[in-house]
Design brief:
The complex is a heterotrimer of chains A (289), B (749) and C (159).
Chain A lengths: L1 E3 L4 H10 L4 E4 L5 H6 L7 E4 L9 E3 L5 E3 L5 H6 L3 H4 L1 H7 L5 H4 L4 H7 L6 H8 L2 E6 L2 E6 L4 E3 L2 E2 L6 E7 L6 E8 L10 E10 L2 E10 L6 E2 L1 H7 L6 H13 L11 H23 L6
Parallel strand pairs in A: 1-3, 2-3
Antiparallel strand pairs in A: 4-5, 5-10, 6-7, 6-10, 8-9, 11-12, 12-13, 13-14
Chain B lengths: L22 H6 L14 E7 L5 E7 L1 H5 L3 E5 L10 H10 L4 E2 L5 E7 L2 H10 L1 E6 L6 H5 L23 E9 L2 H7 L2 E9 L11 E6 L5 E5 L4 H12 L6 E5 L15 H11 L3 E4 L2 H7 L5 E10 L5 E11 L8 H8 L8 E8 L14 H18 L4 H8 L18 H10 L1 H4 L6 E10 L6 E7 L5 E5 L7 H13 L6 E5 L16 H28 L6 E4 L2 E4 L10 E2 H6 L9 E6 L7 E11 L6 E11 L6 H20 L30 E6 L21 H13 L10 H12 L2
Helix pairs in contact in B: 7-8, 10-11, 11-19, 12-13, 15-16, 18-19
Chain C lengths: L3 E7 L2 E7 L5 H8 L18 E4 L2 E4 L12 E3 L12 H8 L9 H14 L5 H7 L11 H17 L1
Helix pairs in contact in C: 2-5
Classes of the chains: A alpha+beta (289), B alpha+beta (749), C alpha+beta (159).
Chain lengths: 289, 749, 159
Amino acid sequence: MQYHTPTSFDDAIAIAAQADGVTRFLAGGTDVLVQMRADILTPDTLINVKGIDGVKDITRTPEGGWQIGIAVSGAEMTEHPELGRDWPGVVEATDLIGSTQVQGRCTMVGNLCNASPAADAVPAMVAAGITVTVSGPDGTREVAVEDIPTGPGKTSLASGEMITRITLPPRGENGGDAYLRFIPRTEMDIAVVGCGINLRVDGDTITEARVALGAVAPTVRLVAEAAEAIIGTTLDDAALAALAEAASAACSPIDDKRGTIKFRTHVAGVLAQRAARIAYARATGQKDS
Amino acid sequence: MALDDRKTSGFTQVGTRPNRPDGLDKVTGRARFGADVTAPGMLFATIVRSPHAHARIKKIDSSKAEALAGVKGVVTRADFATGLTGENWNILENVMAGDTALYDGHAVAAVAATSALIARDAAKLIEVEYEILPHVTDVDAAMADNAPVIREGAADKSVPEGMHPNVVRYHESGHGDVDAGFAEADLVIEDHFRTEATHQGYIEPHACLATLGGDGKGELWCCTQGHWNVQKICAALLGIETANLRVTASEIGGGFGGKTAVFIEPVALALARKTNKPVKLVMPRPDVFKATGPTASTSMDIKIGMKKDGTITAAQGVFRLQGGAFPGAPMEFTAMCAFAPYALKHVHQVGYDVITNRPKQAAYRAPGSPMAAFAVESVIDELCRKLELDPIETRLKNASKKGTKASFGPMFDQIGLVETLEAAKAHPHYSAPLKPGQGRGISCGFWFNHGGETAVTLALSEDGTAQLAVGTPDIGGSRASMALMAAEELGIPYENIRVTIADTATLGYNEVSHGSRVTYASGLATIEAARDAVGKLCARAAAKWGIPEDAVKWENGCAVPSGPNAGDFDPMPIAEITKRMGATGGPIVGHFEATPEGAGVSFATHIVDAEVDPETGKTSVVRYTVVQDAGKAIHPTYVEGQYQGGAAQGIGWALNEEYIYGDDGRLQNAVFLDYRIPVASDLPMIDTVIVEVPNPGHPYGVRGVGETSICPPLAAIANAVSAAAGVRLRELPMSPPRILAALERQRDG
Amino acid sequence: MSKIHVTTTINGDEVEYLCDPRETMLDVLRDRLGLTGAKEGCGTGDCGACSVTLDGRLVCSCLMLGAEADGHEITTIEGMATGEELHPLQQKFIEYAALQCGICTPGILVATKALLEKNPDPTETEVRYWLAGNLCRCTGYDKIIRAVMDTAADMREAS
């Protein structure tokens, strides 16, 4: 395995473009090192991106959104004084990954590029409408988070391409987001189901919503029907019932060691309701319950 | 054994809570565990394992591996002794497969190289050609007519004719006439229960460092619960003389029964012999799950009859256990423990030991008993609920006590079940109000406890301090208990005793640290060795004073005349005697070797409050209390620790832990990420009540405390879930999907 | 395969070593530097027994490459006591019997020290969640949590 520590994105991309065999980028390392230890995959080329300028920065965009460096850890996001006020769901989702030890290392981009259907950060990122900047030998493009994973362990990134930046949209007025996952223990498990919801209200009425589900399909699912079920409502019981139904209907999970099809389908609806209540409370300015 | 000198009160040291002697080493990172040592010129080894559940090994080609720079040697089954029989053959076959890989993770070859990375790379270059055979991993499926045969001729004579060859042992016990008993009952409940295999889950993987020269002399450092057992088995598997292999037990990072067995040590020795270099072998975590002892999985049928007043009229159980590809699933313990808490006129139990394509089971904390308690105590709870009886009063009504003929045969001596039930009833937990959605469960549990071969020496130093050498590895603070007992007898400060876990070359045979035997048996031996030394101290004082030996007694660390007629001498402190040992007859050493057989049985009663999320089926344990009879708590803090640890493991077993096999017979969850032991945020504080009903078989009344605490939690939680959510879970683990499915079935009527 | 030259600081001392790029920090600590206080319980970040701090932040040394330490500061359990003087957490763990076998203890001590530096007044729930990645199979966590809570109280009083 070749190990590189480039100091610029250009260098990193050049190394990746020239490398033979399997290339991986090392940010938090909490997936790559596990795969190496478990003999699942040892890259031929490992590019440590942490020496690149700005990868640890969290900055406001001129539009009022946020730019987050690709090596910012979940714990650093939580510690940021303002980020969590705008996007508590995104921050909580990223800082839910693994243990305290892992939270000090894991990154949103790593979680995204590992392309696990059960990634915790991704449903929250999709719900929030986050985009990433993808750079490669042929230039740079802006891609919606939901378009990055294409299947378990697979992404739409071409060889030599890497994510160089994460952009969170401006929070704007009267918005709130939330992420919940179901795990059998209280910590340390991979999500059996995850649900991220982001919404905006006008008074008591929901005017915009995005609902994303994790671990119920080969990739994270942005469920328009679930969003429609609550838009125009005050999140009353009927809306919540419709939300749960739409969320469950959008599931096409598998039976595996972590959960059954039936269980995941049911719990997706339960989590959607619970996450919606939290996001709604945040959007309407109620204190978190 | 001089148990006429029993002491049950007036202790000055026993019952206090001093810091453990090895505390400093363990909080500074200095303590040396299995993987923490090195030797000059040491090689690193990796084991190659079968990815198949059942496969004939057609060919092993290690030429590419051996060609890799840094590789020093490869071993296969051909490098071990031949002609072994019985359990030695089973162990060898498990340690290194012969013709057939019997489970996913079964060792087939091993390689030693100059670095761990090279050894891992080399292992991938060893080419094994397999012919895949049909497999079975489920106990009931393995007993069915059409099940693939794991191995012909594995059954012993106990198995009735007509059983499938996978049934390898059979047990039947009981007394009375159960049919007559059931006829007297007002209510009979018969149910089927299943439990999945769980792993001991110690955090330290198996690790060892071996040397073995061409002269047949070897040294082995390893983490084990019993190094004499390792010595004996390794010598047999390598074909060397036992005394030529010296085994030293490292500090041990948890065992819970799983480190009573031998897995990697013979492989490291074989590689050391082949390469003529020290070889270090450390198991990766997935190998620990795949190839070291989980406990057995079970399929059980329980039938119990009860009168309206709560009297149990009869009880019957059928217990089918699979323990992997070899005989040994502890089905007789399951059967014998099942109804032990109750005084029964009519009781009958049957056990089957079944082999499957799974790893060879190893002991796990009260092996076999927790599963039985899960089934039996669940049925008793159902009977109480349907007959509207208080679960503690009902258990008290039927409780075994001194003089009861146990369900497994003998008559109970002094035991403490009633006392634990009374203490549970009086505990504020039992009457505390519950919140909506919560339920309370209780359960009893039983374990035999064990004595076993034990040897101890206590050598006095010239300054009157003492070096105590015991042969039972300290898995949870036992050095502190040993030092307390020695200090109590010698009348010297606790800090003046240095306790060492001696290696196999320096003491007689010591059985492994299992069966909750350490504080009982090594403790008894320590007391007796100290008394032996005291006798010698008194003799030296008598000689000095010129009076008969029996005119001297030992008090507060001094020799004193035994009475006014013995003479008028000032007390002679221990240091004054030891200072002159060399000139007065030589070193003073007390010792004791025996197989104590008076390990008193142990009972516990647990109370648990659980909360079930009706929308997801997730269960939270919100309050937990352990009440258990310790006989006499030598170091109460460590007794509490055993109670808490057993309860926590039981909670994991009840709710989340399980071996998950795919249709291909491969283990799906061989990592801590997916083998879900309780984490800190999963558990509440675990309250403990130490009941002390002295064991007549120990000089201070000690009963083992390590194991019983894992027996009640499974049923206690099932009973709490039943109370909280109205559904009865008869299969473990009570995972959210299972509870949710049960809730749905209940809603659908 | 060429090795990487690393210069780093471990427990306050400058340390240099060569390592294979595939070696983890845990491999380097244990096999190259003889610092065996950090333990490998799983190698995949699930048990916390290998916990160390990297520039003051708690990490699993099994999830970090040895090469990554270059130019950074690592603290291990071996650096927790000051000479003969134990850290208050170490002292309290002994007094409370907050360990049975002791294999998880170094990781838990490193983790709780990091917690108390960040949050000197944690609730029981905060301690439990902070330690969720540090598996202990012996104690049921009860005495560990009590030891941490009481040490925190003592340290607050002393400061």
